[in-house]
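User: Can you predict the 3D structure for this chain?
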Amino acid sequence: MLRLTIGASFLGLAFAGFKLGNLRQSLLELSGKDQELRVCNAIPTDDTLSLIYDGKDLTTNPMDYKECRTFDVSLKTGTKLRFQTSNGTKGTFTVWDTPKCEAVLLLVAHRREDAMNSVSFLSHVFCPVKTAQVAVIDTYNDKSPVELVITHAGSKDTLSFDTAVGLSPGSYDIALKAGKEEKNFQFAAQASQSYVVLRTGWASKKNSSVPQELVIYPLDEMSKTRSAAVKKEETERSGASSLSASLVLGAAVMLCIQ
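Assistant: Here is the predicted structure, written as structure tokens:
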């Protein structure tokens, strides 16, 4: 069995400027260290997302749905990151604590059924380690059972949503299994790098649903090429399928389940 180093689940929830599940508070201290901010737009609409920091629009070109970006910023306790979609929906993420390490702050903007008219957030903090780190985050509102399987050198294990794991550097296959349908893609985990595996989408009984998809960020060029090759091979082998892969050869790779 593939040995995964399971990290503490420091995933926090926040919406409209109020941070829920502040699990990191007792572990993190204020520091002058540099931080890297990674933002993913998981709000399942055609509206774009802008990030306002210290009165400036950091996005320049607003972020599309399922897009992730990296920003070099200096975060302090009390820093407010303001988000606004192109249709006027707003949300503010307040930094309650900053780590004493040179950290990567992952911030996922998404939608919650109990806060439909505001931007909600999920967050995770990575501190430097020698292994690769992966935060597995779920923003899809339909929690019907799915299986997320990771394979390395012939060994398999299951990834759980809303946890963080450590991986040895190397090539990995990830399979998203929903019922009898399965899609696979590959990525190369680099030492000391941090990643997010993010499930997006929206299930609705009243309005149009947005298919659930899997996003990995960041990906190197080799991983993008391998994932594209896997997609081509599976398409040729299976033909039309109710489970289709959607691969964006930009900053992320997405798997689409219809």
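DSSP finds one helix and 21 strands in the chain. The radius of gyration is 18 Å.
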